[in-house]
Automatic annotation (TrEMBL), chain A:
It is found in: Cell inner membrane. This is Intermembrane phospholipid transport system permease protein MlaE. It holds the Pfam family MlaE. Keywords: Cell inner membrane, Cell membrane, Membrane, Transmembrane, Transmembrane helix, Transport. It comes from the Bacteria. PANTHER family: ABC TRANSPORTER PERMEASE PROTEIN-RELATED, PROTEIN TRIGALACTOSYLDIACYLGLYCEROL 1, CHLOROPLASTIC. The complex is composed of two ATP-binding proteins (MlaF), two transmembrane proteins (MlaE), two cytoplasmic solute-binding proteins (MlaB) and six periplasmic solute-binding proteins (MlaD). The chain crosses the membrane at residues 52-75, 161-182, 203-223, 243-262. The lineage of its organism: Bacteria, Pseudomonadati, Pseudomonadota, Betaproteobacteria, Neisseriales.
Amino acid sequence: MNNNGLVKLFARLGAPLTDRLIKLGFACRFFVSILRHSPTSLLRFQLTMREIWFAGVLSVLIIAVSGLFVGMVLALQGYETLVRFGSSSALGILVSLSLVRELGPVVGALLFASRAGSAITAEIGLMKATEQLAAMEMMAVNPIARVVAPKFWGGVLSMPLLAAMFSAMGIFGGYLIGVQLLGLDPGSFWSQMQSSVDFRGDVLNGVIKSVFFGVAISLIAVFEGYDAPPTAEGVSRATTRTVVTSALVVLALDFVLTAFMFTGM
Amino acid sequence: MKRGMIDFWVGLFAVAGAVALLFLAIKVSSQSTLPAASTYSVSANFENIGGLKVRAPVKSAGVVVGRVTGIELDPNLYVAKVTLALDSRYHFSRDSSAQILTSGLLGEQYIGLEPGADDKNLEPGGRIAITSSAVVLEQLISRFLFSKAETAGEQTPTEHAQ
């Protein structure tokens, strides 16, 4: 009898862990099946095109405006600190390196997760709740090939472009504040930036980071939508989970990628 | 949204992304690493390299002519063996000398190449024989203090008695 109580206690302690593990395992299986159905869905590129429009084009405004403001704030704050050491001409380096290496990919990914990831989850979740996915299967249309894979690839293809736009707009914002407002010399602003930002080491690594983030966010978004309980509450919870999980995964992944890319040299 | 309009906007989006990347590539960054094909490597031994790092520039007359590609300790001589990749457009005579310099007071350290007078050039894989080490601030200060102490010691009466 006592033994039975102990078993129940352990079962209750272990239940959240096993639930998560089951979910993770399902997510891995889901990822593999997306990859397996990708060739067929990428051949009908029109579907992916619509998703790039939905996830990428509609996010351009928020990405561009946020990038501009982040760059302007960086320039203002960086100037305050650099001018104390008499090295305010290094402002261009500070703004461009922090944007290209970190802020462009990371903040771009966080914005992308909340702008596009949540919408993808809500759409797939509602399609499931209204049994559209089941109806597709009835018509021998694979919902993963027809709905999930295009959304996944739309997100993956959009993310690096959005991150690059974020960085470019941020550097432009830094230029506006540094050169136009604070009166730094534009020549030294650009040339110092150019001499210390390496295309392969900094810009390309930033792009690689954003590709990783794009895969992570898109996978989380389509998975949460596909896995959502088919109720109004279930869809709303799944949408929240997409944003929270993607934010955590992006930041953790960023640490790992940064540790790989920018240390040891 | 009509299909043609979606295509138009996605196309515009791709162009904007490409322009942003191009901006980052051309205006913001530069290709500082020389392509491996057009370089030859030489080595130089230094007693002390100070804060020299891999990928530090190699300059001659202020012009970047190469990069540091490797730094290791020679286990027999206990000196630092620095490998340099020099641009194959530039050739230096065999008795060129290398010294470790600092750009500015707090700047990065780089290797300065001083050309010599020998009419034979450094071969790929060759070694620069004449080198001078990095200036280490602590050694400089201690040398200065010791020389101060010596001159002070000479003026004391006990020294005169000897």
